[in-house]
Design goal:
By secondary structure, this protein is α+β, with helices and mostly antiparallel strands. It has a single domain, classed as Aminopeptidase (3-Layer(aba) Sandwich), CATH 3.40.630. About 20% of the residues lie in helices and about 30% in strands. A seven-stranded mixed β-sheet has the order 1-2-3-4-5-7-6, with helices on both faces. Bound molecules: coenzyme A (COA). Coenzyme A binds next to strand 4, helix 3, strand 5 and helix 4.
């Protein structure tokens, strides 16, 4: 890993109190049409904080802790499977809104973002790997689904996501029709430890 990693870094679940910081980071990572609205961010952090993970740096001066700064996040909710129940859940325009289906076994990741000044230090890889490991071991669901811009497919493949093909449903929205979006899934497998 890079020797320029930020000091005093930690990961914790996001809470509704983090909504403003999450919105600020969304606006640094995504154009207006792609970012979560404050209402949607608040919904996610209220409905399922355990599926929303934040990467923070602690602001330390000497031995005094001055505060914390959010430098990366993942926002997820459980997304419903197809209406007839025959297909595994994938991201749809509807599930990108204020949707969380507790009975679903698929976690949809709606946002992955790292603050621009901290990108290219393996931090998204670190945050996603931690997220996958925690969800696997807590048996929260059976798989994670994400839609990715085509250039980011190799990045997600390196973290164990499998490419399923182009997501055609989101293209119905002009905000998503400009580029190619790909469905990717990652199975969640619990690690077994020997006694
Ligand atoms: C995508 C993102 C989360 C990656 O964060 P990061 O901490 O820089 O990622 P890592 O350091 O763990 O990995 C870097 C790798 O990501 C990939 N990557 C990042 N941005 C990329 C881009 N625009 N195009 C293609 N690959 C990209 C590359 O494979 C890169 O490896 P490289 O440096 O060897 O080329 C970050 O660039 C970001 O927040 N972007 C804006 C929001 C966004 O697009 N999120 C993804 C939603 S699908």
């Amino acid at each position: 890993m890079s020797s320029t990693l930020p000091l005093h870094m930690y990961i914790r679940p996001l809470m509704v109190e983090d909504t403003q910081d999450v919105c600020d980071l969304e606006s640094r990572g995504f154009p207006p049409e792609e970012r979560a609205s404050p209402e949607t961010a608040e919904f996610r952090l209220t409905a399922c904080p355990e599926l929303c993970s934040g990467l923070f740096i602690r602001d330390v001066e000497g031995s005094e802790v001055k505060g914390e700064k959010l430098i990366g996040h993942i926002l997820g909710t459980k997304i419903p499977c197809s209406a007839d129940g025959t297909q595994n859940a994938l991201i749809t325009l509807e599930s990108m809104g204020k949707v969380h289906d507790e009975s679903s076994t698929t976690v949809g990741i709606h946002s992955v973002v790292i603050a621009p000044e901290h990108q290219k230090k393996n931090l998204a890889t670190l945050l996603l790997t931690d997220y996958i490991q925690k969800l696997s071991n807590q048996e929260v669901g059976q798989r994670i689904a994400i839609i990715a811009h085509e250039p980011l497919v190799p990045f997600y493949e390196r973290i164990g996501f499998q490419l399923l093909g182009e997501n055609k449903t989101v293209k119905a929205d002009p905000a998503f029709s400009k580029s190619k979006w790909c469905d990717m899934v990652r199975e969640l497998v619990k690690e077994e430890y020997e006694n």
